[in-house]
Amino acid sequence: MKQPSLLSSLFAGLDQPFRAHLKAPTSAYVHIHAEIVATSPKSSYTQYTIELTNPITNSWRRVTKRYSECYRFRKSLMRMYYSIRRDAEMAPLAELLQRLCLTPFPKRYFESDDAFVRMERTQGLTLFFDMLFALWKDGLRLITQTEVHCILAKWTFIEAMLEAFLDQSLHHKAPTNLDDACAICLGDFEDTVFQLRCGHCFHRDCALHWLVEHATCPLCRQTCNAGDVLSVSAMQPLLRTTSTIAAPAARHHMPSRAVSCIAF
């Protein structure tokens, strides 16, 4: 039986941590692909294509970033945290920023990227974007529970930073084919239909009573907690307002300026 060499014995302890560290990252909201972009025959850089499923809007977008852009954005959020952390009035917002700042972030390397660096950054950036969504979600909850003016003003600035950093148009929405029948009752569409956030359309009553029991789209099973009432003729999203779910009723022709029901 072949005996391990002295060199392999010395480095055996390093192999397992590296493999554990290079474990493929997983996230329900973030998927990142690293791509090498050549700028000349002798130089290149790594570009990260990031597909983000926004848990707040139930939509997804694709952004392309370099590691340095993410690094600078995180530094901006850290500077904001350090500027407010000793302010008692800003403590709730500082706590949200602190969670992001304490989250491990991939380190900077001054040599060229290799496979290990790209995997390390892919893993770290996945966690970073997950935490950005957590910050956004918790921040929106915070501003509905506080009347402290300085928190509201600072959050407005933070939200603008987040939107600027992720400023990309939406790339996907399920196709809407109003020539088809309602998938719930199989009846033809009338002038007014109810569109879920995933883009699928149903009769208003059918959708509302389905969501009471299931809270997912009947077709794609995507979680849905809001929707728009659309005019088939104009196909324009209409005014949104809060409503309650009523008992089933006979459908009548509704005016094109019907209102939306988004409180489930």
TrEMBL record:
GO terms for biological process: ubiquitin-dependent protein catabolic process. InterPro entries: E3_ubiquitin-ligase_domain (IPR051826), PX_dom_sf (IPR036871), Znf_RING (IPR001841), Znf_RING/FYVE/PHD (IPR013083). Residues 182-221 form the RING-type domain. One of its GO terms (molecular function) is phosphatidylinositol binding. The keyword Zinc-finger applies. Coiled coil: none annotated. Keywords: Metal-binding, Zinc, Zinc-finger. This is RING-type domain-containing protein.
